[in-house]
Amino acid sequence: MSNCIFCNLPPQRIVHEYKHFYVIRDAFPVTPLHSLIITKRHVVSYFQCSKAELEEIPIILDTQKTELKYLDNEITGYNIGMNIGEDAGQSIFHCHIHIIPRREDDTPNPRGGIRGVIPEKQNY
Fold it and tell me: Structure pTM?
């Protein structure tokens, strides 16, 4: 798509390239080294990915986990997620997966993790 920012990534933004995906650092990171795994093919969401794309995702996640830990040995956890649909917060309508490195004490209470997308549901 000509107006999709992920279809028109400047090459210098790409930190890794795989058969079906690119990896970039998030322009507005939640934590240092927050990265995006982006399909090369323009699809709006994970649910439109091909079988080959879906099979590559766990390999990339594992590789990126290792790479990020190598870059910063203070990483002690990760949040992995996708916003699919406007009501879930998707703002760029091109499939991408967030891998957000976490560190001890980077937030006062990490319990509930991804449940924090609806703050009153985070603590249970």
Answer: 0.94
